[in-house]
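ARCHIVE CARD
CATEGORY: sequence design from structure
SOURCE FIELD: tokenized fold
FIELD CONTENT:
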């Protein structure tokens, strides 16, 4: 991986003038465009070379390659949701449920903007391959884990790799395809991602029930090998897309490692506080209060550092000034928070309340995931045809809210129709608007800001998982234990916490089992209540998003702008 060195500055240049973002800045005077290079070259704007877009078989091969990579990481997201209850049985660590999911999202959320910078300054293909490699290493660590902590470490490494793969995939689509194809291709890519999560619970359930939960991680190795070969053969980024010129010192400064460290530390502190509070420690105990204080402190310091860093920040605050960006970022944050809470607690509902096996739990989540994928493809196609954004996001939020409201009405004796129907409504609703924030921000960003903006959007999608999976776990455990204390004070809370969700019928019998199941149902319903609040807030956010249409890339004027911007 080799960084490009910028042209030395003249004697009148200051340090700020030599920064990569300053070097890339173009000066336009009297219709003549001037760029920094080995020498100053004046080019009429109309003579700018055309962007090199992939078409036909070449575009198909690139999309197939990144889709296979996305399938690899998407399988892991789906697999773990049905494997978690059995992993808690193995290690007797019910209070680690939040970590099994959050560890991945902590790293994805914190590193997504970091990867946005890395993709901007280094070779896209090499960074993408390295991301797949990190994901595979994390899979090995989790598969061979001797204890719960090792699973969490492996999941964290997987999250780092997932961040690079997803961020790289979204950028590759932006780089290789014609602008008018972006909505359909991003919608299709999101559909592939969700199809993989459809297969994940089924595969995970089969492995967990018939072989071992460890194969939920080992399976990534035989799948990952051929994918690496595909990437080496077909992942070719157009020649007009080049790393931003910068020295290695400048690249390290641009990565904003202090900001990344503080963001990750703040997320870890919050997760620890929510894991301890009301479960293994009282909310009034010093460790819980200390971690909450550190979470707030680290977050505030992070914001200050980002403001001081300016364009070097992993989250340049300048990019969040426009309403189209910050409103879509918040919309993405909240809609994904609701999605993660449902996808992680439906399997717990199936396995604990209905006593289903892991494989049946996976099968029964297919309607939700299938209609999510269908909604994503419908949304991408509709945006590509109409160029509208906000109406689909509002429709998505309303359908999502109706679906979560039905989830909240579930009870211990709910029939199959009662928990399948809401999945159809909710899944299609979430999928319909899920990819639109990414489309909006990429299309309304300046070319030099696309990588950073993509990283910010992926961070919002992932960091909501880090926050709200931990929040959901805290709500579930605290409300479940409170209900149990009220209905059956003689049952040990320690025994309940350290029993896996799918192992309840082996640990408890008779009236004790009924009391535990009732308490579990209280906790699950309160998680769905939290999701319902989030989905209702998403409706309000949809109303804040500007009613703008995507640029018409078929027009000659827009094509000319694309040519000039890509030089």
């Amino acid at each position: 991986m080799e960084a490009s060195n910028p042209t030395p500055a003249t004697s009148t240049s200051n340090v700020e003038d030599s920064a990569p973002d300053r070097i890339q800045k173009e000066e336009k005077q009297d219709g003549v465009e001037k760029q920094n290079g080995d020498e100053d070259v004046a080019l009429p704007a109309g003579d700018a070379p055309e962007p090199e877009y992939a078409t036909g078989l070449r575009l198909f091969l690139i999309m197939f390659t990144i889709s296979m990579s996305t399938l690899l990481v998407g399988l892991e997201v789906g697999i773990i949701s049905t494997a978690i209850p059995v992993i808690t049985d193995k290690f007797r660590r019910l209070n680690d449920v939040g970590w099994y999911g959050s560890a991945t999202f902590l790293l994805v959320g914190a590193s997504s903007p970091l990867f946005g910078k890395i993709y901007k300054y280094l070779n896209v293909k090499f960074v993408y391959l390295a991301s797949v490699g990190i994901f595979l290493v994390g899979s090995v660590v989790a598969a061979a884990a001797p204890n719960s902590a090792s699973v969490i470490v492996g999941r964290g490494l997987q999250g780092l790799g997932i961040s690079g793969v997803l961020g790289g995939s979204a950028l590759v689509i932006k780089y290789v395809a014609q602008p008018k194809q972006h909505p359909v291709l991003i919608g299709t890519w999101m559909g592939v991602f969700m199809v993989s999560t459809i297969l994940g619970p089924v595969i995970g359930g089969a492995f967990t029930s018939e072989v071992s939960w460890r194969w939920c991680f080992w399976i990534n190795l035989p799948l990952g090998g051929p994918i690496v070969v595909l990437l080496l053969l077909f992942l070719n980024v157009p020649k007009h897309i080049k790393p931003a010129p910068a020295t290695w010192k400048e690249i390290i400064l641009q990565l904003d490692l202090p900001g990344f460290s503080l963001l990750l530390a703040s997320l870890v502190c919050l997760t620890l506080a929510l894991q301890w509070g009301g479960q293994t420690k009282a909310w009034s105990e010093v460790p819980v209060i200390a971690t909450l204080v550190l979470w707030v402190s680290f977050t505030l310091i992070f914001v200050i550092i980002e403001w001081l860093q300016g364009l070097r920040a992993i989250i340049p605050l300048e990019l969040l000034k426009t309403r189209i960006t910050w409103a879509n970022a918040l919309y993405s944050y909240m809609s994904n928070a609701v999605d993660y809470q449902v996808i992680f607690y439906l399997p717990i509902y199936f396995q604990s309340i209905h006593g289903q096996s892991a494989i049946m739990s996976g099968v029964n989540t297919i309607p939700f995931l299938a209609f999510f994928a269908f909604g994503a493809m419908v949304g991408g196609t509709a945006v590509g045809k109409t160029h509208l954004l906000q109406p689909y996001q509002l429709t998505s939020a309303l359908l999502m809210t109706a679906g979560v409201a039905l989830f909240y009405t579930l009870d211990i004796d709910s029939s199959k129709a009662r928990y399948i129907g809401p999945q159809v409504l909710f899944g299609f609703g979430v999928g319909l608007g899920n990819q639109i924030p990414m489309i909006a921000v990429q299309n309304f960003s300046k070319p030099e800001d696309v990588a950073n903006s993509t990283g910010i959007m992926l961070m919002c999608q992932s960091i909501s998982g880090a926050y709200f999976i931990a929040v959901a776990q805290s709500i579930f455990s605290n409300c479940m234990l409170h209900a149990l204390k009220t209905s059956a004070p003689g049952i040990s809370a320690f025994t309940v916490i350290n029993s896996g969700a799918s192992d309840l019928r082996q640990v408890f019998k008779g009236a004790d089992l009924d009391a535990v199941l009732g308490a579990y149902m209280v906790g699950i319903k309160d998680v769905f209540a939290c999701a319902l609040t989030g989905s209702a807030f998403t409706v309000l956010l949809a109303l804040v998003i500007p009613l703008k249409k995507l640029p018409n890339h078929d027009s000659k004027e827009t094509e000319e702008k694309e040519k000039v911007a890509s030089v």
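CARD ANNOTATION: The two ends are 23 Å apart (CA to CA). Residues 1-48, 555-567 have pLDDT under 50 and may be disordered.
SHELF: design records, drawer C
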